[in-house]
Amino acid sequence: MKAWRKYSPYLLSGEWHIHTSYTDGHNSVDEYCRRAGELGIPLVAFTEHVRRDLNYDFHAFLDAVDRARDEYDLIILSGCEAKVLPGGTLDVDHDLLIQVDYPIFAFHSFPKDFDLYLDALYAVLSNPYVNAWAHPGLFLRKTGFQMPEDELDTIFQKLKDNDVLMELNKKYTLPPAEWINSGKNYPLNFVRGSDCHRVEEIG
Ligand SMILES: [Zn+2]
Ligand SMILES: [Zn+2]
Question: If you measure from the C-alpha of residue 142 to the centroid of ligand 1, how many angstroms do you get, rounded to a whole number?
Fold first, then answer.
């Protein structure tokens, strides 16, 4: 069972995509938790950027999340946002991947090659640890590639079969509206993830 299942009542009321000052965010775990409490947001997931060779202390980050759990009356998940590599592997250490509650994947810097993208997407969707596809469609928007409709059907089917969430990302207005509409027919599970980099961006 994917970790998110346990928290499914909060998919749309929680904030499931947050970066702290451990990477490129501007606020601390504490500051986000305080703000979530003020706004009545019941769940926060800290999906910190990771790479195979990390340049910050991931355990200190996990400790901060643990301390916050004791301090705030919120559901607080540890997580990571891992970059998909050609072939569909994730740029993250396996030990780290299995330690966090909520790993999500994203296409960041990726070769501008549609077939390579599609192969990697299909492969990563069957990774048993991934919970959600972060800012889905951003790579296509940036590259100008169009997703053929039959491929979209295959993607939706794989999301459904593998119980992977599709992120609703207001910051980028993603996924495209037509994906949301056709995704509802499967039905896919959507999750709110705002890719917060500062407390003002949650809620
Ligand atoms: Zn991202
Ligand atoms: Zn992010």
Answer: 13
